[in-house]
Amino acid sequence: MNKTIFITGGAGFIGSHVVREFVNKYPDYHIVNVDALTYAGNLENLRDVERKSNYSFVKQDIRDAAGVSALFEKHQPDGVIHLAAESHVDRSIVAPTDFVLTNVLGTVNLLNAARETWKDKPEGKRFHHVSTDEVYGTLGETGLFTEDTPYDPHSPYSASKASSDHFVRAYQDTYDLPVVITNCSNNYGPNHFPEKLIPLCILNVLNEKPLPIYGDGKYTRDWLFVVDHARAIDLVFHQGKNGESYNIGGFNEWQNIDLVKELCKQMDEKLGRASGTAEKLITYVKDRPGHDLRYAIDATKINTELGYTPSVTFEEGLSHTIDWFLNNRQWLENVASGDYQHYYEEQYGE
Ligand code: NAD
Ligand code: DAU
Fold first, then answer.
1. Predicted confidence band at 24 (pLDDT cuts at 50, 70, 90)?
2. Could you tell me which residues come within 8 angstroms of residue 180 by beta carbon, excluding any fewer than 6 positions away?
3. Residue 66 in domain
4. Whose CA is nearest to atom 25 of ligand 2?
5. Domain ranges, residue 238
6. Residues with CB under 6 A from ligand 2
7. Is residue 264 part of a domain?
8. What is the tally of structural domains in the chain?
9. Residue nearest ligand 1's atom 29 by CA
10. Are 162 and 133 in contact (CB under 8 A)?
11. In the chain, fewer beta carbons within 10 Å around the N or the C end?
């Protein structure tokens, strides 16, 4: 093994795809998945790679500074790809402090441990912080987020991610820690936890339950297939420049209502139901407080500097995603039981 790489949050939605990409592509790396296994972490996401000799899992909460330091001391990682986070905006509105503790304090704990471990030999080391386009706040009807767009977060989730981005940059400026940041748009794909719009709608179409659309449904998001995010992380981790940020997106904007109608159309076809059946489930509900109108990424920098382009269209990616959920009903049932039922009732109950 010529390198040890920590991937934090590797049992989550995006993290599991990043782990898979790295384990399969880099047999010479030792990939250590560092994850606390919260409600969003699920080792079932990694059944296909868990027996590979270059993969290991460590259960570790990044809020625990001493535990994090001991882990760095033991493994002496050469790189960190940091995805562990509380990731759901609606949950951040209900419990903001959880987001400060994991997303801000947890990130600072990792930065401190990396700084200590790499202080004598920072060359060839890299701390890659995986962040979001939500740090830029909201766009109006036009325009795109570039890497120079000023930060203007509105939700407790995006405020916590913005804060963590600032800490990462501060460690580069103050301590010369070698860092890169990526800010990505909305992901979708296999293993997506059904609290988020797309998997929630897939689950509810299957169960013939209402498809809750916040406000007027005209809010716009820029969607990227999760495997394409993992590919972009690989590219930036290996070829990005220290101290730089890279936006990741697919130039693929959809108003929520149009996206849900496309999902309904595809699901009716796949389930052999009459056209229009799923759309009847669409239900407009109370809006999300502080709801950002529109996100859209200008991905020119990663495209021109690193040659990155997404590999699938949205329609293809969505079709693949729905097929995955239809073929993995047990996964869906497992994650949508227990705590999830309680969350669902609190969020969407009368
Ligand atoms: P997720 O909620 O599916 O997974 C988060 C993972 O982090 C889980 O495995 C969980 O167990 C782990 N985790 C949470 N708290 C932890 C703690 N205190 N210690 C250790 N592990 C902990 O999230 P996701 O959607 O896969 O997002 C991963 C990262 O990518 C996050 O940093 C998120 O901000 C960022 N991001 C997400 C999207 C998106 O569309 N989902 C887009 C851009 C950026
Ligand atoms: O932009 C990147 C961000 O995308 C990531 O940083 C976050 O971790 C990720 O959760 C995602 O945030 P969003 O809030 O955009 O995703 P979500 O799937 O929760 O919502 C997408 C849009 O759909 C948003 O406008 C809110 C709306 N929505 C969501 C839910 C859950 C609904 O209308 N109804 C719903 O029930």
1. very high
2. 126, 127, 128, 129, 236, 237, 240, 241, 242, 243, 244, 245, 246
3. yes
4. 219
5. 3-187+225-250+297-310+340-348
6. 87-89, 132-134, 185-186, 196-197, 200, 212-214, 219, 221, 256, 288, 295
7. no
8. 1
9. 83
10. no
11. C
- Ligand 2 centroid from CA 157, angstroms: 11
pTM of the model as a whole:
0.98
Span 81-130, pLDDT tens digits: 999 999 999 999 999 999 999 999 999 999 999 999 999 999 999 999 99
Q: Whose CA is nearest to atom 3 of ligand 2?
A: 186
Q: What is the CATH number of the domain that holds 138?
A: 3.40.50.720
284 CB-near residues (< 8 Å, 6+ apart): 213, 215, 216, 217
Q: Is the CB of 13 under 6 A from ligand 1?
A: yes
Residue 327 lies in a domain: no
pLDDT above 90 coverage of the chain, percent: 98
List 29, 55, 136, 157, catalytic entry = 157
Quick one: how far is CA 145 from the chain centroid? 18
Residue 207 maps to a domain: no
Q: Tokens standing for 272?
A: 């052999």
